[in-house]
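Predict the 3D structure for this chain.
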Amino acid sequence: MKQQIQFSSGLLTGVAAVIIAQTPAFAVTQITQVQLSSGDGGMNIVLVTSNGDRPEVFSVNRDNSFVADIINAQLSLPQGNKFRKDSPAPGIEYVEVMQVDANSVRVVIRGQKSPPRGRIIQGGGQGIILSAAIGSGEIAQARPQPNSFPPPSETAPPPSEPATPRVEPERTVAPPRETTTTQESEVLLPDSGLTGDGFPTLPGQPSPSEVPPFQPRAVAPPVGDIAVSNINPSVEVIDLSTQERIPRLVLRDAPVRDVLALLARAAGLNVAFSSGGDPAAETGPTISLDIENEPVQDVFNYVLRLSGLQANRVGNTVFVGQELPAEARNVVVRSFRLNQVTAQAAAGFLVSLGAESAIVTSQPVTQVNTVNIPGTDQAITNTETIERTVIQPLRYDPQDAPPILKGY
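Done. Predicted structure below.
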């Protein structure tokens, strides 16, 4: 079904026609496969997405579980919309991937005694990788079990030669085996496959010199781990939750306010526009468009970027304005925990990125009061020293480009 919307000459200075048609395109990321790889210290969960898409991921620890929510994603697994694996690695009770709602997928990694130490890795080209570790956080590699490959000094004689274990020449030639307590063993002979602890290497096992594909984050002594998180530097996109497309749209010097209202109405949403109390900005800026075969959501965000307006969607209403108040904006709070750095140096670094700070200092102030004694040339001097609190604001306004932590 097609809908046709036309502008009258009283509404816009140009002529515009919008024809909206539904398309079967999906705006969410499809997760087509879940892969697990485990070791002695943890495991890796690979969520393979269609076309290598990388949606936003938010993680939190709840009780003994590491929970990661993937926004704008759907499960398209062969076994259905749920994946569960019990005891995938030592210390991990189960791993579960489920569809929370129409556009959200949740990954739950539950530990047996303590929550796993999770980390989100954007695997370029293949999807999303979640790394979880128990205890010290070391992601161990596949190693042979001592029962399967005992050391040479404890190897039982083969059944075909029952009388050979007591042959003296073999005892005199074989040197005594030295016990080592190190976790990483040296390779005795490069071509023999034997390591310093007497264990043969398995085919496909990485050698001690190779770096594992996923390393735990660095631990800086003496305070502990440094808190890290993924930050998406891309431009914020207003999600209109529509799949409508615009076959053809031509506008010349049209008010941005009316264009946004038209596009939002085509998506079934409302628009609340604020001029910020400026009468001159009541009509807003104008824009000219020549669009063909573009989604309504993309065109809506194009107009916002070109006009420099702020927008935030709450329910079925989109708030638009030159500078939205804090109550109408999508405010994100980020915490930074640093170690081995002074508070003044950390504050200066964050201010250079666009944050605002204030330094509170105490300065001693000396007050002197003098009282003359009547009839004499002497005076009584009273000296008092008090502490005065001084607040020094820290701000930085670059001229070339807006800083990344600047709040508007």
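The first helix runs from residue 168 to 173.
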